[in-house]
Amino acid sequence: TRVLLTGGSGFIAAHVLDILLERGHSVVTTVRSEEKVQKIREAHPNVPTSKLDFRIVEDIAQEGAFDEAVKIDGLEAVIHTASPFHFNITDTKKDLLDPAIIGTTGVLKAIKKNAPSVKHVVITSSFAAILNPHKGLYPGHIYSEQDWNPITLEEAYLNSSNGYRASKTFAEKAAWEFIEKEKPNFTLSTINPPLVMGPIVHYLNSLDALNTSNQRTRNFLQGKCKEEIPDTGVYLWIDVRDVALAHVKAIEVPEAAGLRFFATAGKFSNKAICEIIRKHFPEYHSELPSVDVKGGDYPEGPIYGYDNARTAKVLGIEFRSLEDSIVDLVKSLKSVGA
Ligand code: NDP
């Protein structure tokens, strides 16, 4: 299948790209600069342009940003991953909401207008569009695809964490509304992962410009948690290779059409990450908090559960263990100088 992948330089997208190629798909990916085109091309030296090609889309927040990029002969599927995921923002609307929402509606409008051969679209949404921030640890509740974050526009502006969660919630809602109102020729699936961890691709990354969800592991390696292990925040996670495969399966499996997928491996805590590093990497012992340092553990009482059955059954995902994910992440961080 000929697939357009947006944001091909991202942490998750780099794995989606590799899995698409492995499974014989032909990929066109958007990135923001010629420099990123070169890096990705150099990392795939034996892949011909017919299998891997590029389009530059500098800013997905601009109306019409994807109008030209989707004009690809024989294009059948689109995987839209590009969206800001970081908290160092100055303007919630400009830095988070606009690229998330306009990026999503923009790619859907462009496909409807300029790419009539597209049959299926997959969008990377998030657990951020599922969780209910007013409920805290929500004991007894089982999160699933049925849940929607009730966050409001007003709440989006309270802090950057709300801003990010609102950006993902509003973008996903806008996508389903587009399908309902515009009745396009294509179907939609969304993949809604919680915290995504696992190996980075070295050619796109440095320790300083590391994607947000892997920073907590890097911080352990850099001795930043010696006094206290930070609060875990959200206690659900998935390995990047599993969530990437879920995106690819969502374009391959017809039953995925019209569904959200709460792609979750299970629970984790920051303390568990620390103990995995301690067990496997003696070279970092001097940077780690000692075993009796406080913080980062699961809360004392019960917390929410999760239902990942749809992702396992419909997409056939078998979830990697936290141990495998963190070991491979730490190895990849070493390769960029950790
Ligand atoms: P990255 O920061 O690595 O990837 C984000 C991608 O989006 C990058 O390719 C980035 O390009 C691109 N991007 C951001 N803003 C713009 C813009 N204005 N114009 C064009 N491109 C833009 O993070 P992840 O790989 O983790 O995130 C990918 C997707 O997964 C996002 O939709 C995110 O919300 C979602 N997600 C991530 C989770 C996680 O824990 N990692 C959890 C749940 C969902 P560039 O790098 O060139 O700026």
UniProtKB/TrEMBL annotation:
<dbReference type="InterPro" id="IPR036291">
    <property type="entry name" value="NAD(P)-bd_dom_sf"/>
</dbReference>
<dbReference type="Pfam" id="PF01370">
    <property type="entry name" value="Epimerase"/>
</dbReference>
<protein>
    <recommendedName>
        <fullName>NAD-dependent epimerase/dehydratase domain-containing protein</fullName>
    </recommendedName>
</protein>
<dbReference type="InterPro" id="IPR001509">
    <property type="entry name" value="Epimerase_deHydtase"/>
</dbReference>
<keyword id="KW-0560">Oxidoreductase</keyword>
<feature type="domain" description="NAD-dependent epimerase/dehydratase">
    <location>
        <begin position="3"/>
        <end position="256"/>
    </location>
</feature>
<comment type="similarity">
    <text>Belongs to the NAD(P)-dependent epimerase/dehydratase family. Dihydroflavonol-4-reductase subfamily.</text>
</comment>
<dbReference type="InterPro" id="IPR050425">
    <property type="entry name" value="NAD(P)_dehydrat-like"/>
</dbReference>
<dbReference type="GO" id="GO:0016616">
    <property type="term" value="F:oxidoreductase activity, acting on the CH-OH group of donors, NAD or NADP as acceptor"/>
</dbReference>
